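Task: encode each sequence below as structure tokens.

Item 1
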Amino acid sequence: MRRPGPDTGLRAADLHSSLSDPLLDVMNFLNEVTLRYPDAVSFGPGRPYDGFFEVDRISTYLDTYTRYLEEDLGRTPEEVRTALFQYGRTNGQIHELVARTIAQDEGIHTDPSGIVITVGCQEAMVLVLRALLADPDDVLLVTDPGYVGITGAARLLGAETVPVPEDGAGLDLATLRTTLAAVRARGKQPRALYVIPDFSNPSGTSMPTPKRHQLLDLAAEEDLLLLEDNPYGFFSRTGERRPTLKSLDTRHQVIYFGSFAKTCFPGARVGYVLADQPVTGDDGRRTLLADELSKVKSMVTVNTPALAQAVIGGMLVAHDCRLRDANKDLVDFYRGNMEALLGALERHLPQDRWQVRWNVPDGGFFLVLTLPFAADNAFLEEAARDYGVIWTPMSYFYLGDGGEHQIRLSASYLMPDQIEEGVRRLASHLTHRMGQG
């Protein structure tokens, strides 16, 4: 292979093949469109609404955490200084507070030693995939359509991902079983399945409770680990609360990803993974998967920033480790936004007169609109430039073909009047396009 000289730069062919994958250009394209058309109403971001953020609360939460260290844990001033200013424990400092929180909010009871505090949930995914996908024949299964963060992380690690389609109630279990058989028939090993059971990104679908039990039973039968991601579980539109897979897990089948991006604030970049699976070494010594992830983390980020952990820790302490109660106003806001989006679609895109349809999620941030024509990058550019509205093509979220006639709308980052105006603009664009057809 010819290597470039010092004056010729680098060739893309000499870089990791994942960097040429179109998947890794998705977010850059969306960011560029948003920056070029700042006055457009954007249904693109899956970010939390920042109107609830208050800058002065950060110092308050930091003070709360400092008092917690001094008064509850009995730390000396020197120990507090070290906890805030030094690198700290690789697996994190607020693991005990996180364990209390998920016990009270989700009914997940675990020893804190099984929790790794990470730099956002994205790092947690990278750590877990690096640890689990140990052999070139190991395969990660993902829901299709699915979250680009997990498929992107797998591609960066050179791991094969295999799609499993959703039906109207989340993962299609019958197809999962046949997919597992097909993967093994190729001489590959299905290692884990990534799933968002509650209000998934991008489709907004949710898995009924009986199906969760069926998935756990199938995973046990097939010797398959489940990677459960739960960023949206609090934000029910209907008020129904379903148990997490992890709270139902009696066999250590589920590795649980959590994040404080939606329930606290994303700027802290604090997430976690609950990896309480026993691991037995060649010498017979038993550890937890969390301990093994610590080894990977020490070579990736060394540790999660102590100050970010302190702010999140202070929030947990301030709310008695009950984030469901603390997020009641946010739950109401997102419920109202989803209702506003559904109502605006009914007013401006009535399904009895339009060749469009959409799903009605039980909660979360997203829904999917299906169109009678392709919704590609060119159509998105036209929507932003000529009609002042931005959305996300669903084709971005499929591993292969799929979603070419669908768009994702996010209801999280806008006010109801902006949602109404954005849907009105979208309807104008669709009217023009269908008139041309």
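Item 2
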Amino acid sequence: MSYFYCYDIHLFNFLTKKGFSFITKARHYKTNVLFSMYLKTPELSVAIDEWEATNH
């Protein structure tokens, strides 16, 4: 199993609007930065590619 860790609130909002559910939200143990963790799936990869193409 592979996971995707999202540290970008805008990407998090985009994925949420697309209907993706995160497994958990937590803070990085060294940096204390909030992240959400997703199960990496082909559908999630397509959505991330779409985000990168339109928002960066």
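Check on item 2: The longest strand covers residues 34-39. Strands lie at 3-6, 24-27, 34-39.
End of task.
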